Automatic annotation (TrEMBL):
Substrate binds at residues 10, 34, 61-70, 118, 180, 189, 209-210. It comes from the Bacteria. Its EC number is 4.1.1.23. This is Orotidine 5'-phosphate decarboxylase. It comes from Leuconostoc fallax.
Amino acid sequence: MDHPIFIALDFATADLARQFLKKFEHVQPKPAIKIGMELFYATGPDFVRELRQAGFTIFLDLKLYDIPNTVAQAVRTITRLDVQYLTLHAMGGAKMLEAAVAAKQNSDLKLLAVTQLTSLTEVEMQSTQSTTLTMTQSVKHLAELAYQQGIDGTISSALEATPILQVTAPEFLRITPGIRLAGDSADDQKRITTPSQARELAASGLVIGRSITKAQDPVTAYMRAKKEWSE
Ligand SMILES: O=c1ccn([C@@H]2O[C@H](COP(=O)(O)O)[C@@H](O)[C@H]2O)c(=O)[nH]1
């Protein structure tokens, strides 16, 4: 899958996620899905296996952030789940990233490093992290660090996708949440773009949650995003 749109399955139970996915049973190819903390903590690895067996491409968004040994052991365990993408925080540092890359061994699992959460403004980032770096400088720095350790791509706003490309390589993935369809109302996401803006800014994949999951007609919202993204 070259340019995926991952639907963020942010649901509280497996049944709610199943009901949602049922609406997509006639959509081919199957949408790629992202399982984050809410659903994973509620349902655990068994539900990940169920969705994988049903043929979904799975992005497990657990945002690992711990000492190198702990993260490496977690990556080793997760490779057995046969998910295709996994997140960890770039802020864990070079040694943590390096340990995660070593732990995935020969598996096809792609590791994605979260740079700065899309819910943060530049001012919030600067005050929390006690830095004078701009958002772009900080994201570029973390992306370059991840790239040098052999990580497969980043998670950032699409607003930083072009700067990330400048310090990494075209094949390094630039996956971007914080995507909203025109007309959506404001929420906790701060660094947002539409799918077509993300494409113009050199994102290589999108994560979309509420614009699809909370839409009156989720399949139509997904198709609209897909059309904008691929045009
Ligand atoms: O910086 C980040 C990292 C991860 N996310 C995750 O993506 C989805 C976005 O959902 P929306 O409903 O489209 O806002 C969500 O699961 C986040 O945990 C992110 O938004 N930003």
